[in-house]
């Protein structure tokens, strides 16, 4: 893949004058999968100069915060309508179900999978036990745990926002999507991976008034984490365009 991308970029450089005028600094490219991140690892001039719009904003793969853009990983269409203004139905303290494909997920499952107040599953919820059981669990939960997987990002964050469940970011060094525009402290709980051992006490210490405030702001930002064709006002497309506009000062002619 690296060779394919390299050949493509070199063809752009040879065919058009635009890349050469800024060495690619006024170009951006989008990749929302860890294989896409790896495809560019051997192209240092692209990583250094161009704006990368990526779902995996990991510093260990060369992500540069003032230059690059963190993209939310959104799996659409959503299976069920958005949640909101329904806090009285949210009786489960915390929820996570998924594959143990990272150290933090292994620890999360080992420490909390037998807890009576946290619904932590060691594996994905099978469709065999019922239709849309995984998605419906978001509606009944106050806080949805979002640990990093093979990369720091997770589609679970956008799922949580859509279904009205406060995302609990459990990841180190994660440049959160649109954090130049949105104040994540107002609609999420941001923790370090080392906080996993105190997860239950941290969530239970959040007063009901604070939870209600987080939920209110969460509903307000839902529109920013949805894609539409054609784009709708304030949706994810316009958020990305605004993020790119904010970076125009980085480009030097």
UniProtKB/TrEMBL annotation:
Residues 4-206 form the Exostosin GT47 domain. It is a single-pass type II membrane protein. One of its GO terms (cellular component) is Golgi membrane. It is found in: Golgi apparatus membrane. InterPro entries: Exostosin, Exostosin_GT47. GO terms for molecular function: glycosyltransferase activity. PANTHER family: EXOSTOSIN FAMILY PROTEIN (PTHR11062:SF43), EXOSTOSIN HEPARAN SULFATE GLYCOSYLTRANSFERASE -RELATED (PTHR11062). Belongs to the glycosyltransferase 47 family. This is Exostosin family. It comes from Musa troglodytarum (fe'i banana). The lineage of its organism: Eukaryota, Viridiplantae, Streptophyta, Embryophyta, Tracheophyta.
């Amino acid at each position: 893949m690296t060779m394919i991308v390299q050949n493509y970029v070199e063809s752009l450089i040879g065919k058009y004058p635009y890349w050469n005028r800024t060495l690619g600094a006024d170009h951006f490219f989008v990749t929302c999968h860890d294989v896409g991140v790896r495809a560019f690892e051997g192209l240092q001039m692209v990583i250094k100069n161009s704006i990368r719009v990526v779902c995996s904003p990991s510093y260990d793969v060369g992500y540069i915060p003032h230059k690059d853009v963190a993209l939310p990983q959104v799996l659409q269409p959503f299976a069920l309508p958005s949640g909101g203004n329904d806090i009285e139905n949210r009786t489960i303290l915390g929820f996570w179900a998924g594959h143990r494909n990272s150290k933090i997920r292994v620890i999360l499952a080992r420490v909390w999978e037998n807890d009576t107040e946290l619904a932590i599953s060691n594996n994905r919820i099978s469709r065999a036990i019922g239709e849309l059981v995984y998605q419906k669990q978001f509606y009944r939960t106050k806080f949805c745990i979002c640990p990093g997987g093979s990369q720091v990002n997770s589609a679970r964050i956008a799922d949580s926002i859509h279904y009205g469940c406060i995302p609990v970011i459990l990841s180190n060094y994660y440049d959160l999507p649109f954090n130049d525009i949105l104040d994540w402290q107002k609609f999420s709980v941001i923790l370090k991976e080392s906080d996993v051992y105190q997860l239950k006490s941290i969530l239970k210490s959040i007063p009901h008034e604070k939870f209600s405030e987080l939920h209110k702001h969460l509903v307000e930002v839902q529109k920013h984490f949805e894609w539409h064709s054609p784009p709708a006002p304030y949706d994810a497309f316009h958020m990305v365009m605004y993020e790119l506009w904010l970076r125009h000062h980085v480009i030097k002619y």
